[in-house]
Write the structure tokens for this entry.
Amino acid sequence: MIESILYPILILSGMGLLFGVGLALAYKKYEVKVDPKVENVREVLPGANCGACGYPGCDGFASAVVSGEASPSGCPVGGVRVTEAISEILGVEVDIGEELIAKVLCQGGKDKAKDKFIYVGVEDCVAASMLSNGPKSCSYGCLGLGSCVEACQFDAIHINERGIAQVDEDRCTACGKCIDACPKGLIEMVPKKSLVHVICMSKDRGKDVRQYCDIGCIACQICVKACKFDAIEIKNNVAKIDYSKCTNCMVCAEKCPTNAIYANFERRKIAHIDAKKCIGCTICSQNCSFDAIEGERKVKHMVVDEKCTGCGICASKCPTDAITMRDR
Amino acid sequence: MEYFNKLILLFVSSALINNIVLSRTIAICPFLGVSKRVDTSLGMGMAVMFVIALSSVITYAVHYAILVPLEIEYMQVIAFILVIATLVQLIEMIIQKTSPTLYSALGVYLPLITTNCAVLGVAIMNIQEEYDLIQTLVNGIGVSLGFTLAIVLFAGIRERLELADIPEHLEGVPIALITAGLMSVAFMGFQGLIK
């Protein structure tokens, strides 16, 4: 009785052992030396195999980086941490690209933008948008059915209580999957450190936008005029911020009549002059676009708190590094 | 002499008449997967041939030397899979060492030979048909040659299809499946070869 169980087990494990040893010996003979860098790079990668880098999985990216085909900063998911780790392994200097984050460019939630019909169907933005551009009267608006939520592998997008997709900044890895998923093309990559965004994509004329949404961009040009740094222009009836010029002064967001420009005012900075270092050269007050620095020549300067917008121009111009940008 | 004739018949039968892919519809996965280019499909065919030829002999030995005396023939599938998996690993190592291009071209389909139905199919068929060792070997080589022939022909057609003007909704896999079906019909012509 016991043999009928014992024999198969013994035979099969014996065969397994024999083949295993055989393979181990063969491996010694036919060993292919893999560049140890590839393995090291592979280890620091996130391992999500999301394909956002354009290579088949993290293994593919690792060998592409080591062979010099891909840039060490090519993994959008890992961000700065991974880029630094890879460049350390490869012993090369990389200028770390700006950290990006996905942003849903619509604020027209249930309370702000009108619906033109009640949609009862497949809970999917692509399906809904096929039906006369979706239930929202603004054909550029977020439908809030969650195609991007499905696409996100990092649980970084959720539909908020107003029925609009919202990106969780801490979780977003800028992999770009949501951008492809959104049938309206509402999601864009923006620099993580930018605090001011035009949260509207409507290319309709201002008059039309006003009719269906309380918080859309009406292309009124007020922000363009308000911006001291030429960072905003109106293109196709919608304001666009040039992030390379934007200083996060947030003046545009203050002036915007419809609040289509959103700024995180809580994170607005303020200039602070170190009295010990200030030599009273007046360069800062000359460069300030908002007359927020007062002070006579050769006298210590003072920042007028109410006027300072935290743009940081003064700090960059100060010859003695006396100005620091601080949180309010 | 009669035995020799029998071997030739067996070979023709396993390679053409009962072609493993087009007549028995076994091993469709690599047939569709690695048939985009003639040279990679030839490489795949060669790899499969090597695995089938070796595995049919080894499984024959395992069956008659180990399983039958101990009366544990019911362990056939597990034991055979063990043999095949080992062989595939070995092949993978050899190919990676000798031809990195073929290795990357075969990609995931190389380890998939492990679960290639043709390999296990031939091994089990040999036992069922009660072939002797030489017949086993001939059958193995015949089947794998048939597989190589089918996949190389198919790859040749698909290379031409790349350039052909195909209706949009038929591009890619659909037209490949239609092609495979037509090839299968063509191979039915061999049915009358042996009376």
About this structure: The CA atoms of residues 57 and 133 of chain B lie 7 Å apart. The mean pLDDT of chain B is 86. The radius of gyration of chain B is 18 Å.
